Amino acid sequence: MNPTWSRFNVTSVVLGFAFLYLPIVLLVVFSFNESKLVTVWGGFSTKWYVSLFHNQGLMDATWVTARVGVISATVATVLGTLAALTLTRYTRFRGRILFSGMVFAPLVMPEVITGLSLLLLFVAVGLDRGFFTVTLAHITLTMCFVAVVVQSRLVSFDRSLEEAAMDLGATPVKTFFQITLPVIMPAIVSGWMLAFTLSLDDLVIASFTSGPGATTLPMKIYSQVRLGVTPEINAACTILIAVVAVGVIIASVANKRREVQRQLDEQAAQRG
Amino acid sequence: MKSLGSIRRDFAPWNDPNAKPYIQFENVTKKFGDFTAVNNLSLTIFEREFFALLGASGCGKSTLLRMLAGFEEPTAGRILLDGQDLRGIPPYRRPVNMMFQSYALFPHMTVEKNIAFGLKQEGMPAPDIEKRVAEMLKLVKLEQFAKRKPHQLSGGQRQRVALARSVAKRPKVLLLDEPLGALDKKLREETQFELMDLQQNLGLTFVVVTHDQEEAMTMADRIAIIDKGEVMQVATPAEVYEAPTSRFVAHFVGNVNMFEGKVAERAANTTRITGATGAQIVVENSTDSKAGSDIVFAIRPEKIKVTSKKPADAVNALEGEVYDVAYLGDMTVYHIRLDDGQMIRASALNAARVTEDPLTWNDRAWVSFRPDAGVVLTR
Q: Touching check for A240 and chain B: CB below 8 Å?
């Protein structure tokens, strides 16, 4: 293939990237604005970043979001992995289709409905809304995503690895922890990261299921924006974008490196 | 002493009525739903034997191996190992180890960790494990690859790691599922001899599943030919080739010519057969050949001589035309169309560089063979 930078190609690329990233670039630029007015440039400054760290409300919300994310992602990963194992390994049990349908339903369920139904449930059982209920709701939301990611790995898993382990004297439990789990670990880690990200940016379900003292960062940002956008919010968002971007870049670089190393190893092995 | 084939076998417990069987399949049946993979099969394997299960894919040979390893339980019948009934014993408590067709090396472990895995499971002390792993690495000549992961090895090296891992625990029986299937031809031939030496040195019982008849013939003491979940014949490679007991076995192993006919006349040592088209051939007596019965005479291509003139002393000589001829270097293959229409495949070893009697396409030719050159089959 011969990459030619025709006028059409350049225009497409520029338009495409502008469409995707212009809003984000503006947000980042204005986070360094000296002026208090969000849309008027008043010179470069990092004062909003300083004031951000003195905004107790935002810092609290960040801390809540981080805890909700870690706990819900971890529990969802355990449950989602178990669901994926059941779905791939026990292909013949009564109600399997119903079970798989129910595991994957939250994928397509509108968040408003999930949030509302959870709210009604928590009210009905008399559960005080707060940190616990948000975490529970996020587990419900993210578990199915973990199940999908882990299941796709398990489908291509070579069962003879487990048979070999048992043949060599490992009990089924040992086989699971020493062979199956390590081999599917990359998928489990991606599942966890996906669950964490989903929990991190969920606004709808959190608004329904959260209570006083358990305001997550997206909720906090949203409520502040309603009172008027301050450059402080821009700064908070910029930090959030930076964190996510660094995470994604590290993950993909590590992945690429592993891939390249693997190819080199295999070529070396073929040469003998 | 006369013997079938060119190898004298001193190890032959199957001919000794007092020999104790080591592995016994007794009327074993295995069904998967409606499909019968193994049908009322009985088989005896002796200690230190190199035993091959040979058959086309889907014939049930792998199921037999998996039942021995404990991954499948027989639907009916039982399997004994050294006198012990294996029913209900899970794979991780059976004194057998298996080498998998895909090798099933643990991708997240180094070569030495792979080999040590089974030893760790049985709680062997660490210094002993280290010693045994070193010994195994030496055995398969992979000492300098101990720290590598499986994906850093070539196909042949992976195969040797799988082998080392499966013999590290010194199992009573080693099961090999198509052990050389993934290797290229040259490496496969080398490895066949290595496997035989290994089996001799370790004194283990080997049960190998293969669809490659040459592989089975090379390595095994005895071969069981399996078709549709049933044993067709259990015999040494030479017996399977030179004395097949059925048309299926004769066809399955090597090339064969079949003369269909009826028993015309029985003399003291020989039987005269009238072929379907009237050709007369004389063969050695078989117990099954009663006068008038339908039989088949099966003869291997290399037992048939092709000449341009009728040999003076030949008992059996049939005339035809050279239909095709192929020079393969070590031998020449002829396809002769007999005058009655039957196509005969014959091959001649090119023992000399120069031949007195060259043949070409469409030449008239005679095929001749001795009365004891083939076998009479009724099945």
A: no
SS3 of B45-101: the string is EECCCEEEEECCCCCCHHHHHHHHHCCCCCCEEEEEECCEECCCCCHHHCCEEEECC
Structure confidence by residue, pLDDT tens digits, B191-222:
899 899 989 888 899 999 999 998 999 999 99
Same domain, B273 and B349: yes
Chain B: residue whose CA lies nearest to A159: B104
Per cent of chain A over pLDDT 90 is 36
Q: Is residue B108 part of a domain?
A: no
So what's the ipTM on this one? 0.84
Q: Which residue segment(s) compose the domain that B21 sits in? A: 13-95+171-251
Do B75 and B178 lie in a common domain?
yes
Taking CA atoms, B68 is separated from A266, B45, B81, B195, B304, in Å, by 34, 12, 9, 20, 42
Spell out the alpha helix ranges (H) of chain A: 7-31, 47-53, 56-89, 96-108, 111-124, 131-155, 159-167, 172-175, 181-201, 204-209, 217-226, 231-271
* Close Cβ partners of B234 (under 8 Å, ≥ 6 residues apart): B43, B222, B223, B224, B225
Count Cα neighbours of A196 within 13 Å in the Cβ-side half-sphere: 15
Question: Which residues of chain A are within 8 Å of residue B93 when distances are taken between CB atoms?
Answer: 169
Q: Is B91 on the interface with A (CB under 8 A)?
A: yes
The answer for A171, left when phi > 0, alpha when psi is -120 to 50, beta otherwise, is beta
**Do B152 and A269 contact (CB within 8 A), yes or no?**
yes
Asked whether B155 and B190 are in contact (CB, 8 A), the reply is no
Chain A residues with CB-CB distance to B106 below 8 A = 161, 164-165, 179, 183
Beta bridge mates, A82: none
Contact B100 A164 (CB under 8 A): yes
Query: Residue-wise over B236-258: b if at least 16 C-beta within 10 A, else e?
Result: bbebbbbbbbbbbbbebbbebbe
Rounded Cα–Cα distance for residues B376 and B246 (Å): 9
CA–CA separation, B203 vs B308, rounded Å?
A: 52
Model confidence over B334-375: pLDDT tens digits?
Answer: 999 999 888 999 999 999 998 888 889 999 999 999 988 988
Instruction: Say if the Cβ atoms of A269 and B152 lie within 8 Å.
Output: yes
**Residue A20 and residue A25: Cα distance in Å, rounded?**
10
Say if residue B224 is in the same domain as residue B336: no
A71-215: which CATH architecture?
Answer: Orthogonal Bundle (1.10)
**In sequence order, what are the residues at sequence separation of 6 or more whose Cβ sits closer than 8 angstroms to the Cβ of residue B211?**
B54, B55, B56, B57, B178
Sign of CA dihedral A194, A196, A200, A205: positive
Put simply, the answer to whether A166 touches B91 (Cβ < 8 Å) is: yes
Residues B323, B307 share a domain: yes
